[in-house]
């Protein structure tokens, strides 16, 4: 079958694509690097050079609300029943463009300092050790449920200042809200996300009120107090920021631990190399972020008509940037389908680029380095117990579970 026929048979919403997108990325990069896909009603961009060019180009944005109203775009007003959910995107930096983005990111940056991240190092290490202490005597665990999920949630809760006894619902709230970033959320997913947004918002209002009365040494207090040029975060912005930090801060981290460890199991020489050479831990983490990128796709809007190579993105059209594909582009990474934990030049874009570059990258790197180093040190005989399944999602790439013996 010709490449064009193969491409016309591909459905980017299919189960086949969700389970293993990489062969399809290869085809897209080779034969249709910038292509409009009807099934998504979006442009799809798959080469590293193009994805990074668009991320750096201010003619594209995560939102277009500041340029065209919904009415101008022929869309109905946002429905009232979704308020609790829409409030989050309307008030967080994630879905804003400059100058609103610059203002919000600046205020959060003031509170989320390198010192605050560094101060978490001991808590990250002791949480990792405590989680492994709990399973040590069993000789087996589900790396996701027992380690990869609780570690980042605990760290973000610690960072924000959510008391231990109140952390129970955080993971569920966050996972339910994040499901809305999939390509086509179902009505059930939407209902659940609105419910989670409502409950989470109510909880954070209470926590913020407590911190206003009784400041503590945590990020919630710092956000309440953050001020720049007489400007502060509004209550809605404060809530939306806390929820963004929890969502952004753990879903991807969880899946780098899961996907990364699974990649090492499938490449036993690399697993052994890492076990025998702890000094490779830092470059191993970068390679695992690249190799099976946890957030495979981010969207941008064309804020104006843009001539891009030989196509024109029309104002308001959406563009799916395939981060997972860019990170496997042979024009940028020699031997891209190999896991090479010693890879020295590794400009992957797992944390994006440009004005939306991941605000939590230093914290994520610290957590991942501690997670892999601790797993390798504590369980030198780690083996895969059962072939895992990938979750049924396109944007967030992660495993259902990862059963191991040690
Ligand atoms: C391995 C872990 C992580 C990965 C792979 C990751 C990835 C990303 C990516 C790709 C973006 C940019 C999206 C875009 O360009 O449209 C982003 C944004 C962001 N991330 Fe992360 N992230 C991780 C961990 C974290 C952590 C731990 C935090 C904070 C606690 C965090 C907070 C944020 C925030 C606040 C933004 C929005 C920045 C903005 O819009 O200006 N992330 N992240």
Written overview of the protein:
The chain contains 18 helices and twelve strands. The protein is an alpha+beta fold and 406 residues long. The chain has a single domain, classed as Cytochrome p450, CATH 1.10.630. The strands form four sheets. It has a five-stranded mixed β-sheet, sandwiched between helices. The longest helix is centred in the middle third of the chain and has 32 residues. The N and C termini lie far apart (46 Å). The model has no long low-confidence stretch (mean pLDDT 94). The site of protoporphyrin IX containing FE has 24 residues, from helix 14 and helix 18. Protoporphyrin IX containing FE (HEM) binds next to helix 14 and helix 18.
Strand count, sense and barrel status of the largest sheet are: 5 strands, mixed
- Shape descriptor: globular
Q: How many separate domains?
A: 1
Write the CATH homologous superfamily: Cytochrome P450
The name of the CATH topology is Cytochrome p450
Query: Which CATH class applies here?
Result: Mainly Alpha
Ligand identities:
protoporphyrin IX containing FE
The CATH architecture can be given as Orthogonal Bundle
Biggest sheet: strands side by side, in what order?
1-2-10-7-3
What Rg, in angstroms, do the CA atoms define? 21 Å
**Beta-strand content bin:** 5-15%
Distance between the termini: 46 Å
SS class? alpha+beta
Work out the helicity level: 40-55%
Tally of alpha and pi helices = 18
Order of helical and strand elements = HHHEEHEHHHHEHHHHHEEHHHEEEEHHEE
Unreliable runs = none
Mean pLDDT: 94
Number of strand elements: 12
């Amino acid at each position: 079958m010709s490449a064009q026929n193969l491409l016309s048979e591909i459905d980017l919403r299919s189960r086949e694509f969700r389970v293993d997108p990489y062969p399809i990325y290869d085809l897209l990069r080779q034969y249709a690097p910038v292509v409009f896909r009807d099934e998504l009603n979006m442009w799809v961009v798959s080469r590293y050079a193009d994805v990074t060019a668009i991320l750096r180009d201010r003619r594209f944005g995560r939102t277009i609300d500041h340029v065209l109203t919904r009415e101008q775009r022929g869309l109905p007003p946002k429905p009232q029943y979704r308020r609790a959910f829409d409030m989050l995107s309307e008030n967080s930096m994630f879905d804003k463009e400059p100058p609103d983005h610059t203002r919000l990111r600046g205020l959060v940056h003031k509170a989320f300092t390198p010192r605050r991240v560094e101060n978490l190092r001991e808590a990250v290490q002791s949480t990792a050790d405590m989680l492994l202490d709990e399973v040590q005597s069993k000789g087996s665990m589900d790396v996701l449920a027992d380690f990869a999920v609780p570690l980042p949630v605990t760290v973000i809760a610690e960072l924000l200042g959510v008391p231990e006894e109140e952390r129970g619902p955080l993971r569920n709230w966050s996972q339910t809200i994040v499901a809305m970033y999939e390509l086509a959320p179902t009505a059930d997913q939407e209902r659940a996300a609105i419910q989670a947004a409502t409950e989470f918002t109510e909880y954070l209002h209470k926590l913020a009120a407590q911190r206003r009365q009784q400041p503590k040494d945590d990020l919630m207090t710092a956000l309440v107090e953050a001020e720049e040029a007489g400007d502060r975060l509004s209550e809605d912005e404060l809530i939306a920021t806390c929820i963004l930090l929890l969502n952004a801060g753990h879903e991807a981290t969880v899946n780098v631990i899961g996907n990364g460890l699974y990649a090492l199991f499938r490449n036993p020489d690399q697993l052994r190399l890492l076990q025998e050479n702890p000094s490779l831990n830092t470059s191993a983490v970068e390679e695992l972020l690249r190799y099976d990128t946890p957030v495979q796709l981010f969207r941008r809007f064309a804020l104006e008509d843009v001539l891009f190579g030989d196509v024109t993105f029309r104002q308001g059209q959406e563009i799916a940037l395939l981060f997972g594909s860019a990170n496997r582009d042979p024009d940028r990474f020699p031997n891209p389908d190999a896991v090479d934990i010693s890879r020295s030049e590794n400009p992957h874009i797992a944390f994006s680029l440009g004005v939306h570059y991941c605000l939590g990258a230093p914290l994520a790197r610290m957590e991942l380095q501690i997670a892999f180093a601790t797993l390798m040190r504590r369980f030198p005989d780690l083996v895969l117990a059962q072939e895992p399944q990938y979750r049924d999602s396109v944007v967030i790439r992660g495993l259902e579970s990862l059963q191991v013996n040690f």
